[in-house]
Specification:
The protein has 74 residues and is mainly alpha-helical. 22% of the residues lie in helices and 5% in strands. The radius of gyration is 14 Å and the shape is globular. The protein starts with a helix and ends in a 9-residue tail after the last helix.
Length: 74
Amino acid sequence: MGRAHNVAIASLPGYTLPGDVSASDRYFERDVVAPPFRLNPDGTMDVPQGPGIGVAVDREFLDRVTVRRELFRM
């Protein structure tokens, strides 16, 4: 999810110091967001075009890999 924000910010005109914009498979077998981030053959990365930040949480996968949940009420 954070990578989606980094990619969106890095795509802004004049932005010169991008954060982590590596492909999803660099760190994870499977990402918790869809679509996953992939590098193009020329080393660039497409900015997701979906609503909001362009990606959606794969809740089914996230539920399968979650080992603990906590609820904080304010």
